[in-house]
Amino acid sequence: MKQSKENEIKEKRKAEHANDLKDSLVKRLNRIEGQIRGIKKMVEEDIYCDEILHQIMSAKASLDGVSKELLKAHINSCVVRQIKEGKEEVVDELMVTIKKMIK
Question: Membrane-spanning regions, if any (predicted)?
Answer without folding.
Answer: none
